[in-house]
Design a protein that fits this description.
By secondary structure, the chain is of the alpha/beta class. The protein is about 35% helix and about 15% strand.
Length: about 120
């Protein structure tokens, strides 16, 4: 099977890759994302983007789009805790439209662990 992303190519060609995870900022600006990847450097195969890891922040989809604009390979994280099936499908269609090719889906931590105890699972 032909790889369709730089991450897949790196995995198939070397078998060992290095990625890092960033936490999107709690603001609507890409400067913090650029600063984070500038610190990380160019040696990574991809950058994983956390999805509402410790409370409200820029969406993983938007942050992944910023990474694409910076020439980086994002791994878009989708936490199913916060979305119903329709929202997940919409987000995945949006990711495909933006050119995001790497996706990780997880159930995520319970809201009480993220400081959002008044929130409920979807």
């Amino acid at each position: 099977m032909k790889p369709n992303s730089r991450l897949a190519t790196a995995i198939q060609s070397t078998g060992f890759v290095v990625t890092a995870e960033i936490l999107p900022p709690p603001a609507a600006e890409g400067a913090a994302i650029k600063a984070a990847v500038d610190v990380i450097g160019d040696s990574l195969a991809a950058v994983s983007v956390a999805d509402n890891h410790s409370g409200v922040g820029m969406s993983s989809l938007a942050a992944s789009s910023v990474l694409l604009g910076l020439g980086r390979e994002p791994i878009y994280q989708v936490v199913t805790r916060d979305r119903n099936r329709i929202a997940i499908q919409s987000d995945l269609l949006g990711a495909a439209a933006l050119g995001i090719k790497n996706v990780v889906c997880t159930s995520g931590h319970h809201q009480t662990l993220a400081g959002c105890s008044d929130s409920a699972n979807v």
